[in-house]
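Give me the fold.
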Amino acid sequence: MLLLSLFATDLKKGQDSSMRHIEDLITQLSPGDRVFLRADLNVPLANGKITDANRIEAILPTLRRLLDQDVVILMATHLGRPKGHDSRWSTAPIARVLHSDFDIPIEHVEEFPPGEAVKNALDAASDGSVLLLENLRFDPREKANDLDFAQGLVRHCKYYVNDAFGCCHRSHASVSAAASILPAFSGFLIQKELEILTEIRDSPKRPFWVIAGGAKVKDKMGVLAQLGPQLDGVVCTGGLANTLLAGEGIDVGASRTEPDSLSAVKELLSGGPEPVLPVDFVAGDDLEHPSEVVSIQAGDPVPEHLSFFDIGEKSLDHIKSRLQSAQTIFWNGPAGVFETTEYSNGTREIARFLAHHAGRVVVGGGDSAAAVRQLQISDRFHHVSTGGGASLEFLEGRTLPGLEALSKSCRQDNECTG
């Protein structure tokens, strides 16, 4: 299909899969070595308290493996989207949780960007301990991928480790530029993500199905195009379902659609994977006032003021029956506005069904991952990705700047075989 050539890219182009891993680093470390660790600890906060520690838990295998070598770790992360220095987005709560809940010997350093205070703290740090920097996004040079800023971050360290898979699709200073300054290695989380997502992308067990939800249609098209030749079916919810239904002349009221994407989506699915569309919806005037369940099978007009915010029970039964025989399922995007209680049932029920599915189920980060963590069932899936945008871009075959930076570091030091 034409779309495959438009959206799919050469998986090898611009991204060498060879990179040094943390176990390669372990053999080189000596007690007291300073290691810069880029983590993704962008956790949700409410009144200064962390409400979901999943990303903190995800960094622990790499963190503890390094600490076992009696090195000193200078760890950095972004948090939220602050506009300059903003105490509401300080990383101090992360340090407190790492210390109190996970028994990590850690000190939070307030000085940012790093200067004399950080140097003094590193000089005084005991072997086998961690210093956590302030929020990287307090400085605009982080997002600008500024080399001078990156040099300031890592200048007192001997090695660089990236275990922030969820940030690898960004050309930011701590993700991209910093890896060009020191010998760079990937952590356990990146290794796990790449292993599982590569299997999904290149050699999934079939029948292979994707559940594509969420509001934005264009975000799904690259993945569907890349996976298309191996896909057996696509469960369409959210904006994708609305757009396809409207394109078939079915009334969707005031529901969000992307008519500009319709022809491309229809070409993508034409003669390829089987599309499965909802047959009923929970609709409302707005997010605060669900009013009724709308069945589109009857062909009745939908009042123009109503929008579809969730799928109904008949749709759930239909989706479950079609997914029953799947051997591999990739789920990205909720079935409705799950963060609103009145419209969360579809997403909850899909999550619970998938948690007990006999096939291999991978949850593709973002809102889908948040939903399964909220339900406290994330341990029942084959894998729950920590990278929403990063996982999608990887599955599309696109070059991820963070991974490319790790590969370049490996090549420039002549330590790669790939």
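Residues 1-16 have pLDDT under 50 and may be disordered.
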